[in-house]
Specification:
Length: about 130
């Protein structure tokens, strides 16, 4: 697992010092964070009482040379469309942001680390669902 993608739950657990997650992250050559995750984090910061401290921690994390932001591109949108159609056909859709995060992970060729079981229902996604 050289290219690891983290979702919002993984970022939160990383900040909390989750040992298993930290071990996995230490093995990565690069950590990828989808722009959708940044939006979810900003929303959480706005609702929380420590917005300034949380933003600073995120800024520090994003400034690390091994951390890259995954932008939404036309190719990511195509992956999203495929995931969306499969989920609708299955009758068990997952949250919209999770589909965008999965599309970013698939497009990047990265392995997603998450604590969110919804990602296990997305066909073609290479991921590890960790326990709390």
């Amino acid at each position: 697992m050289k290219r690891l993608v983290i979702d919002t739950s993984a970022y939160s657990h990383m900040r909390g010092g989750h040992p298993e997650l930290l071990d996995l992250l230490a093995s990565a050559e690069v950590l990828l964070i989808p722009v959708t995750v940044l939006g979810e984090l900003e929303g959480a910061f706005e609702l929380g009482s420590r917005a300034k401290a949380n933003r600073q921690a995120l800024t520090d994390f994003l400034s690390e040379p091994f951390v890259l932001i995954l932008a939404s591109t036309v190719d990511v949108a195509r992956h999203y469309g495929q995931i969306y159609a499969r989920q609708r056909r299955s009758g068990r859709p997952v949250p919209v942001n999770d589909m965008w995060i999965a599309a970013s992970a698939i497009d990047s060729g990265g392995h997603l680390l998450t604590f969110d079981k919804d990602f296990g229902r997305i066909e073609g996604l290479d991921c590890t669902i960790l326990g709390s």
